[in-house]
From TrEMBL:
The keyword Ribosomal protein does not apply. One of its GO terms (molecular function) is heme binding. Keywords: Dioxygenase, FAD, Flavoprotein, Heme, Iron, Metal-binding, NAD, NADP, Oxidoreductase, Oxygen transport, Plasmid, Transport. This is Flavohemoprotein. Residues 4-140 form the Globin domain. Is involved in NO detoxification in an aerobic process, termed nitric oxide dioxygenase (NOD) reaction that utilizes O(2) and NAD(P)H to convert NO to nitrate, which protects the bacterium from various noxious nitrogen compounds. Therefore, plays a central role in the inducible response to nitrosative stress. It catalyses: 2 nitric oxide + NADH + 2 O2 = 2 nitrate + NAD(+) + H(+); 2 nitric oxide + NADPH + 2 O2 = 2 nitrate + NADP(+) + H(+). Residues 154-258 form the FAD-binding FR-type domain. In the C-terminal section; belongs to the flavoprotein pyridine nucleotide cytochrome reductase family. Belongs to the globin family. Two-domain flavohemoproteins subfamily. GO terms for biological process: cellular response to nitrosative stress; nitric oxide catabolic process. Its EC number is 1.14.12.17. It comes from the Bacteria. SUPFAM superfamilies: Ferredoxin reductase-like, C-terminal NADP-linked domain, Globin-like, Riboflavin synthase domain-like.
Length: 438
């Protein structure tokens, strides 16, 4: 464990905050350029996040947050835990850290030029290794916990694709079972798997996918949305079949269901952000928690909304309530706004699926919600105004989706004075939005 940073070092790091605000992205772009010149390091990264600058933006925000809070590092506890969990998922090891140190310090010198005095460089060197030691220590704890837990492992483990399920035209689930036939680590509902994949024509790739199945099952299920330009998602959809083998690291992530709580649960999702929340729903139902569950999903169309029949069946059984928002949704003729739909049709699993399957085909938009049997269907987006009007101050909110969606939801909940422990969220990819960094 590193000794605490001395006052002079912390003061010099704080003094670089204006420069980081002005040139932070240039520094992290240069840093990644240097870092990814090493093949053994390049293979650890999702390179698509380099092309859209998501990862350099996220790192620039993290470095700035570190500099701004270096005198009160307790505020960065959540950020540090999130980074450590992602590093464990990717099998980042202590020997990788010197590469990052050289790249970061070199990038600061390159971008800031003469402003990067020897004193500044020395201070940032000490600051980097202090944080690196914290992360290395925490990562070792997680690695050890995983390796010694029942069903746990360290490094990469081979899994066979036991089944594929086409959830929608654009979303497919894959059931994975261990090749060695040994037990599975009991993941926490909401966590993800990290994969090391060899894609023909694209080489080694790393991706994280949330586990959409309940803890304790005999398999892990991941649910993947196909992206037109997505190298890995396209390969999974088009090429990976039953019997194929994938390599995955132990489940990881700091976004998971608090099973010790008895508070109501509100699950807010947009798009494929629903995947970790489906695992939470399955866990809550399987453990007979008795907690009030309210599931809210926003999607452009029903073709981007997986597990609608599953959620519908739970709602009709009284196990949860659900609301679906479709930005491009229309209600079919015969189900006009304000007209309740017969319970028998819902229970037969036909109503909601038939209704939603026609949502994009009718010219009748839904000016108001259509409700029946614990389910409400809206046109439009999940908005901050809707959230304020329907706020449950006693609930814990679990949020997952695009950064802009999460920012709006989190901002609203914070403004309504919900505590930090009541607002939990997962970031797909890197935290490139300032509101999501800490």
């Amino acid at each position: 464990m590193s000794a605490p940073l001395d006052e002079k070092t912390r003061a010099l790091v704080v003094a670089t905050v204006p420069a980081l605000k002005a040139h932070g992205l240039a520094i992290t772009e240069e840093m990644y350029k240097r870092l990814l010149s090493h093949p053994e390091i390049r293979d650890l990264f999702n390179l698509s996040h380099q092309r859209d600058l998501e990862q350099p933006k996220a790192l620039a925000l993290a470095v700035l947050a570190y500099a701004e809070h270096i005198n009160d590092l307790g505020k960065l506890r959540g950020m540090v835990e999130r980074i450590a969990e992602k590093h464990v998922g990717l099998n980042i090891l202590p020997e990788h850290y010197p590469f990052v140190a050289d790249a970061l310090i070199g990038a600061i010198k390159h971008v800031l030029g003469d402003a990067a005095t020897p004193e500044i460089i020395d201070a940032w060197g000490k600051a980097y290794w202090f944080l690196a030691d914290v992360l290395i220590g925490r990562e070792k704890q997680i690695y050890d916990e995983h390796e010694h837990a029942p069903g746990g492992w360290k490094g990469w483990r081979e899994f066979t694709v036991r089944a594929r399920h086409k959830e929608t035209p654009f979303i497919t689930s894959f059931d994975l079972v261990p090749v060695d036939g040994k037990p599975l680590f009991h993941h926490k509902a909401g966590q993800y798997l990290s994969f090391k994949l060899d894609i023909p024509g694209h080489g080694s790739q790393r991706r994280n996918y949330s586990i959409s199945s309940a803890p304790g099952a005999d398999h892990y299920r991941i649910t993947v949305k196909r992206h037109d330009q997505g190298v890995v998602s396209t390969w999974l959809h088009d090429s990976v079949q039953v019997g194929d083998i994938l390599q995955a690291a132990n489940p990881a992530g700091d976004f998971f269901l608090d099973e010790a709580s008895h508070a109501p649960v509100v699950l807010l999702a947009a798009g494929v952000g629903l995947t970790p929340l489906i695992s939470m729903i399955e866990d809550l139902v399987a453990t007979h928690s008795g907690r009030k569950i309210h599931y809210v999903l926003g999607a452009d169309t029903v073709d981007l909304a997986a597990f609608v029949p599953f959620v519908t069946s739970l709602a009709t059984a009284g196990k949860l309530t659900a609301e679906f928002f479709f930005a491009k949704g229309n209600v079919p003729a015969g189900n006009l706004p304000g007209q309740p739909v017969a319970q028998s049709n819902v229970a037969s699993s036909g109503w909601l699926h038939r209704t939603l399957s026609h949502l994009t085909g009718s010219k009748r938009t839904i000016p108001e919600a259509v409700s029946s049997a614990g389910i409400t269907v809206h046109s439009g987006h999940i908005t901050q105004d809707w959230l304020r009007k329907n706020l449950d101050h006693a609930a814990t909110y679990y949020i997952c989706g695009p950064d802009s969606f999460m920012r709006d939801m989190i901002e609203t909940l914070r403004n309504e004075q919900l505590s930090g422990s009541q607002i939990r969220y997962e970031i797909f990819g890197s935290a490139s939005d300032p509101a999501l960094v800490i």
